[in-house]
Write a structure and sequence with these properties.
Blueprint: H1 3-18, E1 22-29, E2 41-48, H2 51-64, E3 68-71, E4 77-79, E5 84-90, E6 97-100, E7 103-107, H3 112-121, E8 124-125, H4 137-143, E9 146-147, E10 150-151, E11 156-163, E12 168-173, E13 192-200, E14 202-203, H5 206-223, E15 230-233, H6 243-249, E16 256-257, E17 260-262, E18 269-272, H7 278-296, E19 305-307
Helix pairs in contact: 1-2, 3-5
């Protein structure tokens, strides 16, 4: 990294840190910022608190030619074991929220589980499926997160973004978001950073909503290996198949590479049994794909985003 540009970037970060709109660490460890608890170091880890801070960091990084990646809660990602030469920007401090009637608007860093709880307290139904998903609003929009009987596309009517390349703000309404199975318009277009989303829900009974949420959480606890670090479900659902069943039928439950293991509780999860590296996980994922294809002829795709 060019020393002059690095100095310029640090100066900008320091100025915003003095205003308490962000904090940052140089040569920071990435593992604590991923639910996998895996990763090397990054030149910078930046924690933004406001939209102003996020946009300011992005502008400065672009101006100085510094590589960056914006993440939320790190729940669907795998950091490389190698150094990330640039800035990892964390948005979990961006948690502004507004509620009016059946509409909730939330910033990108707002916890999806917390949002479901807030909706329940307001007697609004539609977000029960999101209770227990460890991601943030931004990540949920990016991936069109879903579980049980719901998906983000069913409740989000508008998303807001910052266009880094054109230094402009914009929004996508309805079908413009191009939500599909674990897909959105944000995976198609480079340089668009999700700032928040509008959720349109329906009036419901608060007690019934809570009961449904608690039921989903019990099901997660019973069926998923929540006691181990992971990135959630590792593979996309193969059309017409239950991916976990394909993995189980290939005899892979409990199969390990280093500290990474196919969960014995739920074969759709690759877990960090302790000391797993990104290389372990990538090798294990590749082995699973090969074994499933050999056993059933079905190609399964990894849904975890690898950041290198």
């Amino acid at each position: 990294m060019n020393s002059i540009k690095k100095a310029n970037f640090i100066k900008k970060l320091s100025e915003m840190a003095e205003r308490d709109i962000l904090s940052y660490t140089e040569n920071g460890d990435l593992a604590p910022h991923s639910t996998f608890k895996i990763g090397g170091k990054a030149d910078f880890i930046v924690r933004v608190q406001t939209r102003e801070a996020l946009v300011g960091v992005l502008k400065q990084a672009r101006e100085d030619g510094i590589k960056y990646t914006v993440i939320g809660n790190g729940s669907n990602i795998l950091f490389s074991d190698e150094r990330y030469e640039g800035a990892i920007i964390l948005t979990t401090g961006m948690t502004a929220l507004s509620c009016e009637d059946n509409i909730i608007e939330a910033e990108c860093g707002y916890s999806l589980t917390a949002l479901a709880s807030r909706a329940q307290k307001l007697s609004l139904t539609g977000l029960e499926f999101a209770y227990g998903i460890p991601g943030s609003v931004g990540g949920a929009v990016f991936m069109n997160a879903g579980a049980y009987d719901g998906e983000i596309k069913n409740v989000v009517t508008k998303t807001y973004y910052y266009d880094v390349k054109n230094d402009a703000f914009g929004e996508f309404v309805g079908e413009e978001n191009k939500f599909g199975y674990r897909e959105s318009v944000y995976q198609e277009k480079d340089g668009l950073i999700i700032l928040g989303a509008r959720f349109e829900l329906e009036k419901g009974d608060s007690s019934a909503i809570l009961e449904k949420m608690q039921g989903f959480m019990r099901a997660r606890s019973e069926k998923q290996p929540l006691e181990y670090p992971s990135a959630g479900s590792t593979f996309k659902r193969a059309p017409g198949y239950f991916t976990a069943k394909l993995i189980d039928e290939a005899g892979l439950k409990g199969y390990s590479v280093g500290g990474a293991q196919v969960s014995e509780k739920h074969a759709g999860f690759v877990i960090n049994r302790g000391g797993a590296t990104a290389a372990d996980v990538k090798k294990l994922v590749s082995d699973i794909q090969d074994a499933v294809y050999k056993n059933s002829g079905v190609e399964i795709k990894c849904e975890i985003k690898i950041i290198e």
